[in-house]
Amino acid sequence: MFFKKKKSSFAKTAADQPVENMSQDDLNPNLEARSESDSAPAAKRTALFSQLGLNSRILDAVEQEGYKTMTPIQEKAIPAVLEGKDVMAAAQTGTGKTAAFTLPILEKLANGPKARSKEARVLILTPTRELAAQILESVTNYGQYLSLSSAVVFGGVNINPQKRRLLQGVDVLVATPGRLLDLARQRCVAFPNLEILVLDEADRMLDMGFIHDIKKIIAMLPSKRQNLLFSATFSNDIRKLAKGLVRNPVEISVTPRNSTAETVKQWICPVDKKKKGSLLVKLIQDNNWKQVLVFCRTKHGANKLAQLLEKQKINAAAIHGNKSQGARTKALAEFKAGRVTVLVATDIAARGLDIDQLPQVVNFDLPHVPEDYVHRIGRTGRAGATGRAVSLVCDEEYKQLADIEKLISRPLDRRIMDGFEPESEVGKSPPPFKKAQRSNNRSGGKRYGGGNRSGGSNQQKRYGSR
């Protein structure tokens, strides 16, 4: 969705300042501060929603939410969608992708015929339940003054209420592929009069193995329709999918491929695997972090870490695929409300989480797929706000770290916490931690390579591009 202009919750941090010696102004996410990066993007966004010629009732809803200027993806995509063109759009998480298709879709539907029983005029496919629910929320908020109907269907919950809702027909249907196919097989939904198909987070749907489900769904749709494909990246697999989907598309890309937001300060803490939990506790307690999204590689690991944090009197909850939808919804709501300090998530469960001005992301485990690193840290630093992303890296994760640094074309800053110096050599020739050039800054902290913004030493550059 698109964004209000708000104050950042972080002060700017010097690139070479070690974690243990950062001031509270640097690390305390509760302080009201504003950096140059907050205001710079907003200053460039001069295009107003009022200039689009949208229905006054849609503009009223936009204004009620406090939004005036468009993000780059919205400025480029909305006119193309309004003109009825197929669109392929690549943009980072948090850039306003949802509104980029939601607003023009509502405009196009506003004066059309109502959906018939068991039919939908617009189908929006998403990879996860959380993302589906959030898209429905956007449709509802920005269409609140329109006489349009909408619904969401996904697995993990009782299918019968979804059947009853579809019986009435809906103008906008948001769905995950598996549950939609279940409903179609039971003849609860059909699409003979579908006007628009949206694939959101298309790259993640392919990563999750939904390609065959997507092809089955496309086969059920009328050939004459508008197609909108939104993805974090334009990978070769995405382009292959697009060949059989979009027709003469307008191709939009507002950020370099696989880039990370400049507003997110990234660094790693080398640490032995067995000490990761203790280090995370120390970081949270010493820096008084109040809202932290932590990524674990496995469901079991997420549960175990949440339990460890609870034992240390840190309110924590875990969300992953084995949790019921009710438990996931409750955990997310409590995290957004501030009643849960740490939300521990797996990649699949966290995809699509939209948490306003989330200050801190922690990679407890590095992802196996380097692109997931970009998606993970995209949870923070949204809409020009600043954010922090720290990764706790052990020697077993050397290959993942090298792959990530190659993908983002830069070495990540290394910072070792006192009392958590890794005992084992990390990786092989050249090890990213112990044999990198070591320096002590004025405050006495330890930092290992990659910290300067020009790209570090020659050795670091070679490592970062391997």
Write a structural description.
This protein is of the alpha/beta class. The chain folds into two domains: 19-40 and 259-464, Rossmann fold (3-Layer(aba) Sandwich), CATH 3.40.50; 72-253, P-loop containing nucleotide triphosphate hydrolases (Rossmann fold, 3-Layer(aba) Sandwich), CATH 3.40.50. The protein is 36% helix and 16% strand. It has helices at residues 24-27, 36-44, 56-64, 72-82, 97-109, 129-142, 160-167, 177-185, 202-207, 211-219, 236-243, 276-286, 299-311, 325-337, 347-350, 370-377, 398-408, 458-464, and strands spanning 87-90, 120-125, 150-153, 170-175, 196-199, 226-231, 250-253, 264-270, 292-295, 316-319, 342-345, 360-363, 387-393, 413-416, 438-440, 446-448. The strands form two sheets. A nine-stranded mixed beta sheet has the order 10-11-9-12-13-8-14-16-15, with helices on both faces. The chain is globular, with a radius of gyration of 23 Å. The protein starts with 23 loop residues before the first helix and ends with a helix. The relative contact order is 0.14.
What is the class of the largest domain in the CATH system?
Alpha Beta
Overall structural class, as computed from helix and strand content, comes to alpha/beta
Helical stretch count?
18
* Percent helix range: 25-40%
Give the tally of β-strands.
Answer: 16
CA gyration radius, whole angstroms: 23 Å
In whole angstroms, how far apart are the ends? 36 Å
Low-confidence stretches: 1-45, 427-466
Instruction: Tell me the β content.
Output: 15-25%
CATH superfamily of the largest domain: P-loop containing nucleotide triphosphate hydrolases
Major sheet attributes: 9 strands, mixed
Record the strand order, biggest sheet. Answer: 10-11-9-12-13-8-14-16-15
CATH architecture of the largest domain: 3-Layer(aba) Sandwich
Query: Given the C-alpha coordinates, what overall shape results?
Result: globular
* Number of separate structural domains: 2
The mean pLDDT is 79
CATH topology of the largest domain: Rossmann fold
